[in-house]
Amino acid sequence: MSDLNTAMIEKYRSSFLKEVEANVEEGEWVKMCMQCGVCSGSCPLGKHWEHPPQEIFMMIRAGKRDDVLSSDSMWMCTSCYNCIARCPRGLPITHIMHGLAVYSKRLGLTPQKQPTAEFSQIFWDNLMKKGRVNELKLGLSMYFKDGFGQGIKNAMANQKLGQNMMKAKRMNAMEFFGGHSVKDLSGFQKMVKKAQEIEEGNIKDFK
Amino acid sequence: MADDKKFAGYVCTGCGLGERLDAGQLETTATRDGKMQSCKQHEMLCSAEGVQMIKDDIANDDVTHVMIAACSRRAKVEAFNFTDVALTRANLREGVIWVRPDTDENKETTQEMADDYIRMACAELKSMAKPSASGEQSLNKNILVVGGGITGMTAAIEAAAAGYPVHLVEKNGALGGAVGSYYKVIPTRSPYDAPAENPVPALSEAIEADGNITVHLNSTITKTDGAPGRFSVDIATESGSTETISIGAIIQASGWKPYDANQLPEFAYGKSQDVVTNHELEALAVAANGGPIKRPSDGKEVQSVCFIQNAGQCSDKDGHLTYFAGVTDLVSIKQAMYFKELNGECDTTILFDNLRTPGAGGEDFYRAGQNAMVTFSKGIASEVVPGDSLTVKFEDKILNEQTEMACDLVVLATGMEPNSGPDPYAQLTVDMAEDEEEKAKAQAILENAPPSILNLQYRQGTDLPHLKNGFTDSHFICFPYETRRTGIYSAGPVRRPMDIQQARDDATGAALKAIQAAENAGLGRAAHPRSGDLSFPSFRKEGCTQCKRCTVECPFGAINEDEEGYPMYNESRCRRCGTCMGACPVRVISFENYSVETVNQQIKNVDIPEEWDEKPRILVLACENDAYPALDQAAQAGVEINPWARVIPVRCLGSVSLSWVTDALNNGYDGIVMMGCRRDDDYQCHFVRGSAMAAERMSKVGDTLDTLNLEPERVILHEVAITDVERAPQLINDMAETVEKIGLSPFKF
Question: What are residue B121's phi and psi, to 5 degrees?
Answer without folding.
Answer: -65, -40
